[in-house]
Q: What sequence folds into this?
């Protein structure tokens, strides 16, 4: 039996990942640790939402152990990045029966009053049934 982690947002509010679903029917259960993302895209969306909430433990838990040190709550808070929207451009594999997957996305943000966009093609690998974010190629 998994111990549920308290959620940082009301489950009836729209999920920040832009899926048009409520948080409780989208990324919430992943953040809470009661459900694993079934696809690379779900993991990508839930990691974006975790950035929105500054949920460092979730970000650290969804990369290979050797990469998890980069995610700590203090440095996330210091970045002062306000994530303003996620657009999934395309996906390759990353489905229920795949072991690898790619998701190309554009994440928009505001930082010190300036708007920016982070365009990346991310690589995901399923390890022991759990999708992990491996790395990404930054695109212009
Ligand atoms: Zn979501």
A:
């Amino acid at each position: 039996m998994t111990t549920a982690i308290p959620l940082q947002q009301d489950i009836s509010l729209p999920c920040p990942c832009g899926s048009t679903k409520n948080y409780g029917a989208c990324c919430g259960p992943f953040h809470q640790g009661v459900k694993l993302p079934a696809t690379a895209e779900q993991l990508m969306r839930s990691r974006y939402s975790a950035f929105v909430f500054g949920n460092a433990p979730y970000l650290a838990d969804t990369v290979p152990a050797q990469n998890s040190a980069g995610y700590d709550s203090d440095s996330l808070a210091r970045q002062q990045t306000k994530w303003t929207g996620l657009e999934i451009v395309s996906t390759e594999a990353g489905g229920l029966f795949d072991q690898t997957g790619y998701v190309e996305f554009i994440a928009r943000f505001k930082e010190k009053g300036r708007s920016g966009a982070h365009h990346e093609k991310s690589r995901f690998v399923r390890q022991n049934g759990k999708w992990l974010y491996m790395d990404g190629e930054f695109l212009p």
